[in-house]
Design goal:
mainly beta; 4% helix; 57% strand; elongated; disordered N terminus
């Protein structure tokens, strides 16, 4: 039987899962796979088959294309996630140290590409394939961050290969199905903060007088680090319905993908009563996504789009490393909530060459107040976007989009037990109290061609 270990007698750690930035979408979801979709904040995306990138959202809708189509996009993401607060330490009920803990720009800039190809096979069947990402996060705190023992560097990169097929049931209805082959790699961990090292060093003489030897901690050293990768498999499906020539309605679902990241676990700090320098694995589930979308034409130039998207984040309950020797090393309880995203957009065909777009979305955060952490500083977000398509020729067009994302400022209040019973019935604990704020800018460009 595996032994359960919950860090009761050592430094507590956190883990983040990486993508582009925690400022962008709920949890660590990534939406940047279509420049034309971003131009209207992804509103109505599953019901608006403008080019081959529709495959990522609704495989059924690829059946509308009469010729082979190819789309390639790249999105530049510039997030700004800032942490402002202070860390304190207590020996029982007695304060024994504290300092400011502030960090700017914990999320790095990123480029997110996407590639799609679709083609009709006959009058009823179409097929295609996409290569893109739907999940990821990267956060990186410096060695000077005063609460590094709460959160440090974390990175998870995913890429999905998604072959799909669409079948035309009749002139109004299409159904689609796809397979998801996802590769993920991660490097995750936590470190020794300068405030933790200094506080422990200050307590050492008093502890020695009582016959207790505290560990010597070096700022910036790894408390816990893990690298691993895995392949995961899932599916997606969709319905595309055109009840009238003016209305498109779509329902799409991308199923959960389960991953077991296998790799190596290590620690540069001997504070744990278990061996962390050995092979290990981490279970990571990519949440299921369901979207209901509408595209409504007003006239030959104007149309409006809307979407409601549900992400089943409640399956993401904890982060736990499974070590080769049979120990389950509980890193952090996450307890994500399910999230909803609502968006509305407008599309205006200015002339034969230029199409304009704009959109707004409200993205619900997945972290409740009691579960908000430094590792995944998630909160509610507002999206405002604009974009355009320039038709270069009869067969080629270019999409451009800009998105501004404004995250709601949120409070963080986290406690950790560093050493339990360092003195008889006396714990050495730490607390971080502060706020997080987040904004992001996204620039996206996409080339579409048919042949």
């Amino acid at each position: 039987m595996k032994q359960q270990f919950s860090l009761r007698s050592s430094v507590c750690l956190t883990l983040a899962t990486l993508a582009s930035s925690s400022a962008l979408a709920a949890g660590f979801q990534v939406n940047e796979h279509s420049a034309n979709g971003l131009g209207r904040a992804m509103a109505g995306q599953a019901a608006k088959p403008e080019n081959a990138s529709i495959l990522a959202t609704n495989p059924a809708a690829i059946g509308v294309f009469k010729e082979a189509e190819f789309s390639a996009s790249v999105s530049f993401i510039d997030p700004n996630v800032d942490i402002n607060g202070a860390v304190t330490y207590n020996l029982g009920d007695t304060p024994v140290g504290g300092a400011a803990a502030q960090e700017d720009d914990i999320a790095d800039t990123a480029f997110v590409p996407g590639f799609f190809y679709v083609s009709p096979i006959n009058d009823e069947v179409s097929a295609g394939v996409g290569v893109f990402t739907t999940y990821g996060l990267r956060s990186d705190y410096s060695d000077d961050f005063g609460a590094l023992h709460f959160a440090d560097t974390a990175e998870v990169k995913t890429v999905t290969l998604n072959p799909a097929v669409s079948y035309k049931v009749n002139k109004q209805l299409m159904i689609g199905f796809g397979l998801n082959i996802t590769y993920a790699e991660a490097e995750i961990g936590s470190g020794v903060s300068n405030t933790l090292a200094g506080t422990v060093a200050g307590l050492a003489p008093t502890a020695e007088a009582l016959g207790i030897t505290l560990p010597t901690l070096t700022t910036g050293n790894s408390l816990f680090s893990m690298e691993g990768d895995d392949w995961g498999y899932g599916w997606n499906a969709g319905i595309f319905w055109q009840p009238t020539e003016m209305t498109n309605i779509a329902l799409s679902h991308r199923a959960e993908t389960k991953l077991e990241l296998d790799g190596a676990v290590s620690s540069e700090t001997p504070v744990f009563p278990i061996n962390l320098n050995q092979p290990g694995s981490l279970d990571l589930n990519l949440a299921a996504i369901t979207e209901l979308a509408v595209d409504q034409k007003i006239d030959d130039q104007w149309s409006v789009q809307a979407s409601v998207t549900f992400t089943d984040w409640s399956t993401f309950e904890k982060l736990e490393a499974n070590l080769e020797d049979g120990v389950d090393f509980l890193i952090k309880e996450e307890n994500f909530d399910d999230s909803w995203r609502a968006s509305i957009g407008v599309t205006y065909i200015l002339n034969d060459e230029i199409t304009l777009r704009a959109g707004y979305a409200y993205d619900d955060g997945v972290v409740s107040v009691e579960n908000r952490s430094l590792s995944i500083p998630d909160t509610d977000r507002h999206w405002v976007s604009g974009g355009m398509t320039y038709t270069v020729s009869e067969d080629t067009s270019v999409d451009l989009a800009y998105v501004f994302i404004d995250g709601r400022e949120a409070d963080i209040n986290k406690d950790r037990t560093i050493i339990r019973d360092v003195l008889p019935e006396t714990d050495f604990t730490t607390n971080f109290t502060g706020t997080q704020s987040a904004t992001a800018h996204i620039l996206s460009v996409q080339l579409n061609t048919r042949f």
